[in-house]
Write a structure and sequence with these properties.
The protein has 305 residues and is an alpha+beta fold. It has helices at 94-111, 147-163, 167-178, 219-240, 277-282, 291-304; strands at residues 3-6, 9-14, 19-23, 51-54, 61-67, 75-80, 117-124, 136-142, 182-185, 189-192, 203-207, 245-250, 265-270.
Length: 305
Amino acid sequence: MTSRSWPGGELRWDHLAGEWAVIAPGRSARPRGGACPFCPGPGQDTPAETWRLPAAGGTGWRMRAVPSRYALSEHHEVIIESPRHDWDLATGTDAEAADLLSAWQQRHRALRDEVTQVVVFRNHRRGAGISLPHPHSQVVGLPVLSSATRRVLTMMREHHNRSGLPFDRELLATELSSGERIVVADNLTVAFVPAAPTTEFEVRFTPTQRRADFATVPADELAATARTLRKVLAALRAELGDPSYNLILRTAPTGLEHVPYLCWQLRLLPRPAVPAGLELATGIPVITTAPEHAAKRLRSAIRDC
């Protein structure tokens, strides 16, 4: 057995699957009830913060980052997205959504020099793996590249070598030309349902300007992405009744921030159903709502919001 020890557990290599598994027994101790440690006040209970966005007037905070008590790696932070326990990205303001993406940028930039890959994600509701309902995101620096990341890097690099064009640019041009899976599009960002989604109502957010590194996205482009993301989340809530979802950032691993074949992207993965036997046996998703119909429903919901 090939294994590597690290804070919070152990990495073990699955030789058949060609993938690392994280063995983290301490994660089972995460709180699932009682006083919220993220709410400000006498019950607040977190490690010392690593970053904060001050509240207007300089009193208190609007957003803060702290090390995770139940870390998956040596570099694992929680971004507490609001002092309000009932705040949500779908119902917040465009400015609040932009602040969150800016926080992702800053904490990604702070962690990446000491790791191989930084993973940034947001889990929403219990079906997506959340343990505390207070709105928060997570930033995890990993010492290895996952097999999924290596496969994407290889495919993107080989496609660029053959065609001279980034795969994401060609895919975006195809989606815009067809239009049937586009949910929202403006001059800075496009949201679309992929032709072969991983989950029901999956939406991908792609910038119109190619950048491999999310940390370099300028403020106007970040604001446009935040605005589009909020619209889509509100539409998803209207259509599916506030489903569980995972929101994941895909960006260049450390050392590949300037390669010409990568483009950062956000992936919204709703979890309206639990994967069943065929999916688990083969890794092949079973999607019961055609992507074209999902995009149409989300477009209609955005118009009605």
